[in-house]
Amino acid sequence: MTAELVRGQNHPLPDTRLELRVSAGHPVVAGATLGDERGQVAGAEWIAHPGAPVRPGVEVPEGAAAEHRIAVDLAALPDTVHRISLLLALPPDAGGPSRFGTAAAPFVSVADPAGAAVATYTITGLDRESAVVALELYRRQGVWKVRAVGQGYEGGLAELLADQGAPAAADLAAAVLRAVTPVAAPAPQPVPETAATTPAAPDPSSSTTAISYSHPSRRTAPAAPAPDSGAVPPPRPSEPPSPPQPAPAQSRPEPVAGDATGWTMDERLYNQVWGMFEDLARTVAAYRSARDFADHRLDRAIDQVLADPGTRVGGAGDAARAEARATHEELMGRAQEVLDRDLAHLTAESEVVEPALPAAYARWDNPVWHAYRTPEEPPMAVRLGDLHLPERTGLRIPFLVRLPLERGLWVDAGPGRTSAAGLLDDAELRRLALDSAVAHTARLLAAHPAGSLTVHVLDPAGSGAAAFAPLAETGVLAGPPARGAAGVTAVLAQLTERVDLLQMAVRGDAAEDLPPGFDPSRQLLVVHDFPHGFDDRAVTRLRYLADEGPSVGVHLLMVADRADAAPYGPVLDPLWRSLLRLTPVPDDHLADPWVGHAWTYEPPTVPPGSAVLWQVLGQIAEARRRNLG
After folding, report:
1. DSSP string of 186-252?
2. 486 Cβ contact list (under 8 Å, min separation 6)
3. How confident is residue 420, by pLDDT bands cut at 50, 70 and 90?
4. Can you point out the beta strands (E) in 464-586?
5. Beta bridge pairs of residue 108
6. What is the C-alpha to C-alpha distance for residues 396 and 346, in angstroms, rounded to an integer?
7. Does the pLDDT value for residue 379 go beyond 60?
8. By CB neighbour count within 10 A (0-12 exposed, 13-18 middle, 19+ buried), where does 572 fall?
9. What is the pTM of this model?
10. What local confidence, expressed as pLDDT, does residue 251 receive?
11. Which residues, other chains included, contact 71 with Cβ-Cβ below 8 Å and sequence gap of 6+?
12. Each residue of 137-156: pLDDT tens digit?
């Protein structure tokens, strides 16, 4: 797979022989610097440029062009080289743009020896800069990786080379640009209005599928992938990238619900919500990267003042520190300006999209539920809560999970890590967890055609009778909640046998040989108060259902405190890992593995005093009775 990077993100390299590809849409000069562990360049002999295109382990083109290919052989680099930086600069007197902010965003990729793209990066957020460090290949603990940098320089190539420690940087930059010879470029293509902020398409020669931060069905802005639990944020780069720059003022189209591709409105709204999530992830990633860059630049400037005895004290030192702090405030202000602009656009889009969502995607307080009718076919996904980031807690993105469920659900009834959970005692947390599980069950039932999802409930001690009342009294369950060890054993044996039969039918391609009257509907098992009422055999069957059930339409919804099952030790670790953890109170336990954000999850709650849950379940029960009649 191809990884589409954002600023500051790194990705491992699979081979030592690589090709760096550049597509800018206008003439640029491509070069590379060979740096030490700190990224510093010892002299002109460690810079590959059109006047000296071949250096140990790297070869660059000899002229300015809209597209470039740079050959890299990491194995041929001297031992003292720990970093290769890919440089792009705008050539003077080439008839092209004088700064990157007025042209399409450059697109760079790293390809393996077979020509397949390993990683790509679209350099957005540039404005007045005329030179940029696009990306860097760096060695850490003997392993080579690529990092998206996107650090621009208003002072051009001279400022860039000086920042990397090259001696006589101004003279060297002038010599590099004088050595540029024009190279014929492909005929220019019309650039759309959003080209400066929209990622270019991956290299068409690559046969791999991109992990794209720009959703294929999203028409507007770039973005990031879906969350998963347990991801670790990428390490902070030693040289953070430059902050995003405010783009030239241009009018954005008014947001419209369903403004995404798809065959149906359901699919278009699903893709639009996914795109909003991705846009928010990338916007915040750029802001945090810019903030880190500003802090790093301030620290470096202060360190330089303190390192020089001549400026450590006195008026010169005070002036240098004041200038560094002023620069820091300017960079932070520009980053905040970009963040506020993008978040305002996303907020406006959310205000338009939220009221237009169908029942499966809507909050419980959406009026769409008052007109609910059972669907003829299941939707693409179901809403299991909301997600938000601390930069704008009021901007909530629907947490949509695809149907059919690929993994079971676990509503964690244990003590949480957040202040909201800390204010509640154990009994209240368990009550909220069970209420949340009942609401999730109702949503899953509401998303399926009548009779196509059968729900079983295990309540061994009977302690959840009040919470399960909406499900039991409306008649949407397969039977009364099972109680005691005997009830647990009977339901688990029934579902285990079902999984065995379906797996044999699938493997033998003999679905017609299933027993007469076999129920074809999907099954949902809601387990409360685990492991009460479970013996060792029941626990084994539960693990079997969690592992094998989803592939044949048998799903779990656990309501449990993991600490209650501590006597089983690590035996149950695979069970917990196989389930998607949800919480009954807001908790920042969901993370996406690419950008590394910790997303705060908020469970769906029924408005206090509302009868919407009972009304929806009543509609489901009535539709089921009509089907049976």
Report:
1. PPPPPPPTTTTTSPPPPPTT--SPEE-SS-TTBSS-------EET--PPPPPSSPPPPP-PPPP-PP
2. none
3. low
4. 522-528, 554-560, 580-582
5. 22, 121
6. 10
7. yes
8. buried
9. 0.63
10. 53
11. 18, 19, 58, 59
12. 998 777 899 988 989 999 99
Residue whose tokens read 């949800």: 582
pLDDT of 260: 82
**How far is Cα 237 from Cα 452, in angstroms, rounded to an integer?**
51
Cβ distance 241 to 289 under 8 Å? yes
The residue among 246 and 135 whose pLDDT is bigger is 135
- Please give the pLDDT value at position 194: 30
CB 458 within 8 A of CB 487: yes
* Nearest CA-CA partner of 601 in 387, 409, 284, 401: 387
- Which of the four pLDDT bands, split at 50, 70 and 90, describes residue 440? very high
pLDDT given at position 508: 80
What DSSP string describes 17-79? EEEEEEEEEEEEEEEEEEE-TT----SGGGEEBTTB-EETTEE--SEEEEEEEEEEEGGGS-T
Handedness of CA 181, 184, 190, 191 (dihedral sign): negative
Segment of 137-146, 159-168, 197-206, 208-217 carrying the highest mean pLDDT: 159-168
Report d(CA 570, CA 584) in Å as an integer.
Answer: 25
C-alpha span between 419 and 442 (Å, rounded): 28
By the 10 Å C-beta count (0-12 exposed, 13-18 middle, 19+ buried), 295 is classed as middle
SS3 (DSSP) at 400: strand
User: Interhelix angle for 536-548 vs 484-507, to 10°?
Assistant: 40
HEC assignment per residue over 162-195: HHCCCCCHHHHHHHHHHCCEECCCCCCCCCCCCC
